[in-house]
Design goal:
The strands form 2 sheets. Strands 2, 4, 5, 6, 9, 10 and 11 form a 7-stranded mixed beta sheet that branches. The protein is mainly beta. It is globular and about 40 Å long. The protein has no helices and 11 strands. The N and C termini lie far apart (40 Å). 0% of the residues lie in helices and 53% in strands.
Length: 115
């Protein structure tokens, strides 16, 4: 099993940048896939980004070219670098891992983009 703790959310203006962190309670080299999702108020949870232990990354269409996800294996942390933020990026951001067939979610961190 694994515990995931997100941090780094906050209030920013459109066009600004923010970096989210997802700290894992175990060695992340043993977690092949870690995803980022977000959920805006009144909307379904949306896929944002994926990182694999082999270094492959993938992104949702709405964030391609603006967001970058990466891993720091020494810190057991997964990052989501967000740039050129827009109002529609507002929401609660969650990291997710699938370990031994079970889904694990963090508690989420709020990102608000507003002028």
């Amino acid at each position: 099993q694994v515990q995931l703790v997100e941090s780094g959310g906050g209030l920013v203006q459109p066009g600004e940048s923010l970096r989210l962190s997802c700290a894992a309670s175990r060695n992340i080299t043993s977690i092949y896939v870690v995803d980022w999702f977000r959920q805006a108020q009144g909307r379904q949870r949306e896929f944002v980004a994926r990182t694999t232990a082999s270094g492959v990354a993938g992104y949702g269409d709405s964030v391609k070219g603006r967001f970058t996800t990466s891993r720091d294996n020494a810190e057991n942390t997964i990052y989501l670098e967000m740039s050129s933020l827009k109002d529609e990026d507002t929401g609660v951001y969650y990291c997710h891992a699938l370990v031994s067939g079970r889904d694990y979610w963090g508690q989420g961190t709020q990102v608000t983009v507003s002028s």
